[in-house]
Recover the amino acids of this structure.
């Protein structure tokens, strides 16, 4: 089969890590007889620099015309400390989510045995932790209106909005993941304070009878933040609104000790987007030292979720495991010799 993949490498280490995932995908294509057609487009700070828009129309069109999007990272320090900047790279990411209808962000949280010593938690707490965060991605306080500043600039406001339909479609996905896994769904909200959270709870409660095989529990977000640290193994699938999901998914990913290794998928109405969960790591840009594994594993999610190529996805996961056992890893996780980003990519492609 022939598949079209849009490549949005973005800023910082984005281009380097995406290159390694492309190498690996090409090797998969060769082995399994698929051809992947890669087309690049601009996103983030580099798009602002080039055309003044962090998610240009051409990029949007390319995404719409592709079978999947492989995304690197966005962000540039020159915008981070400038609250007055008129356009920001992050707006590109939010525009992409909205325009592609990517209402769900899926982040699997898994531990790698060889990296457990890097976890900030005790090994016995985190070993074997394995859950999925299903974050709502196109609603809530990230997009609600009105938002802005009062005329005299002394007040600012954001609005958190959810509709019942938005809650239903993300919860449906949460139930689907739970059904494929250990049949437990934790709904994270702040129903003791927020009206939107009470709508979530009410809506989910209405859906429970349709899924008798799934055990559902509700947890306030502050409690969830605590329990992820105290007892991460208790979770199977966690579903939550946009901002809670933003915060909890970072927390969840770091407890594994493998932040540089975790992939993610954003799925919804149009083309799905696959990207590492880490950021653009500008300090490492151009040095060929960044860990490409999260992006390579994102390519595995792409094969599985967007193209339905399950064996091919597993082949990538297997070769990643092999590289870690063989110690062919970048400096962030190396015990002995550290390999360059490009060397890890070459090794993976050769051994697929
Ligand atoms: C993420 C990021 C983004 C978000 C930023 C860069 C806008 O933190 O994908 O989790 O807050 O959603
Ligand atoms: Mg985040």
């Amino acid at each position: 089969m022939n598949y079209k993949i849009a490549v949005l490498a973005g800023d910082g280490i984005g281009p380097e890590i995406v290159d390694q995932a492309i190498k690996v995908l090409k090797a998969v294509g060769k082995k399994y007889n698929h051809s992947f057609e890669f087309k690049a487009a601009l996103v983030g700070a580099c798009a602002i620099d080039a055309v003044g828009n962090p998610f240009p129309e051409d990029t949007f069109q390319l995404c719409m015309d592709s079978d999947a999007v492989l995304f690197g990272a966005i962000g540039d320090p020159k915008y981070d400390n400038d609250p007055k900047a008129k356009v920001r790279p992050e707006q590109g990411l939010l525009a992409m989510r909205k325009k592609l209808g990517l209402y769900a962000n899926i982040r699997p949280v898994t531990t790698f045995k060889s990296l457990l010593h890097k976890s900030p938690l005790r090994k016995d707490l985190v070993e074997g932790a394995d859950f999925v965060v299903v974050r709502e991605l196109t609603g809530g306080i990230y997009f609600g209106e009105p938002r802005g500043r009062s005329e005299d600039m002394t007040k600012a406001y954001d609005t958190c909005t959810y509709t019942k339909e938005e809650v239903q479609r993300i919860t449906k996905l949460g139930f689907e993941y739970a059904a494929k896994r250990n049949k437990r769904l934790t709904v994270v909200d702040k129903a003791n304070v927020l009206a939107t959270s009470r709508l979530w709870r009410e809506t989910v409660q209405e859906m429970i009878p349709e899924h008798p095989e799934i055990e559902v529990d509700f947890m306030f977000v502050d409690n969830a933040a605590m329990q992820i640290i105290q007892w991460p193994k208790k979770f199977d699938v966690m579903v939550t609104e946009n901002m809670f999901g933003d915060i909890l998914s970072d927390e969840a990913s770091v407890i594994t000790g493998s932040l540089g290794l975790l992939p993610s998928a954003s799925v919804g109405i149009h083309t799905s987007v696959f990207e590492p969960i880490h950021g653009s790591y500008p300090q490492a840009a151009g040095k060929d030292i960044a860990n490409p594994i999260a992006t390579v594993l994102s390519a595995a999610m792409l094969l599985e979720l967007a193209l339905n190529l399950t064996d091919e996805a597993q082949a990538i996961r297997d070769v990643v495991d092999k590289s870690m056992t063989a110690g062919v890893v970048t400096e962030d996780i190396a015990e002995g010799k550290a390999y360059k980003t490009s060397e890890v990519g070459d090794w993976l492609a050769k051994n697929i």
Summary: Residues 146 and 246 are 21 Å apart (CA to CA). The radius of gyration is 20 Å. The longest strand covers residues 2-10.
